[in-house]
């Protein structure tokens, strides 16, 4: 069972930041606009994608990533599923693209969270890296 981080300030800080971002207008639009500029490899991978749908799905998956730290077994299963779908047998996403994904996410948070600080960004990175590690381990 993963450790329960719920009581830790870092978990609460990131969850509250997520809620401020989600409540702001166009957070996921900003995320994908920025993500697409991070590498010419990225936009073609979404050429056939319904981006409106994708923006809704990514919000849900960010919450699963956050819940990993709570020792939530359903969250572990959900993030493992993302690992399977992004593996060589699926979307085939090479591990180095995840750091661009995380940079884009942090850039979008900086734009949309009025309480953004570099320290908060580091906390986001710590929490998201746990999920990214799990996803990449399925590559
Ligand atoms: C931790 C980071 C990421 C999370 C949480 C995430 C999450 C998701 C989810 C939930 C889906 C839809 C369901 C599925 O196909 O599994 C998806 C689809 C997809 N993701 Fe990711 N993803 C991440 C990183 C990336 C990266 C780095 C790329 C690289 C370009 C990428 C490319 C794609 C593509 C191409 C699809 C399929 C879109 C379609 O259905 O046409 N993802 N992702």
**What separation lies between the terminal Cα atoms?**
22 Å
* CATH structural fold name: Globin-like
Give the count of structural domains.
Answer: 1
CATH architecture: Orthogonal Bundle
Overall 3D shape = globular
Low-confidence runs of at least 5 consecutive residues: none
Ligand names: protoporphyrin IX containing FE
The CATH superfamily is Globins
E-strand count = 0
Structural class: mainly alpha
Helix content: 55-70%
Rg (CA only): 14 Å
- Beta-strand content bin: under 5%
Write structural notes for this entry.
This protein has 139 residues and is mostly helical. It has a single domain, classed as Orthogonal Bundle (Globin-like). The protein is built from 7 helices and no strands. The protein has helices spanning 9-23, 27-37, 42-45, 51-67, 73-85, 97-112, 118-137. Helix 4 packs across helix 5, helix 5 (73-85) crosses helix 7 (118-137) and helix 6 packs antiparallel against helix 7 (118-137). The radius of gyration is 14 Å and the shape is globular. The structure holds protoporphyrin IX containing FE (HEM).
């Amino acid at each position: 069972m993963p450790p329960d981080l719920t009581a830790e300030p870092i978990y609460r800080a990131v969850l509250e930041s997520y809620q401020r971002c989600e409540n702001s207008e166009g957070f996921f639009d900003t995320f994908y606009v920025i993500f697409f500029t991070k590498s010419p490899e990225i936009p073609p991978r979404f050429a056939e994608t319904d981006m409106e749908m994708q923006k809704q799905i990514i919000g849900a998956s960010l919450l699963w990533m956050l819940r990993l730290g709570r020792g939530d077994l359903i969250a572990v299963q959900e993030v493992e599923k993302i690992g399977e779908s992004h593996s060589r047998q699926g979307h085939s996403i090479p591990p180095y693209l995840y750091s661009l994904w995380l940079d884009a996410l942090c850039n979008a948070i900086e734009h949309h969270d009025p309480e953004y600080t570099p320290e908060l960004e580091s906390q986001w990175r710590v929490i998201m890296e746990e999920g990214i590690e799990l996803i990449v381990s399925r590559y």
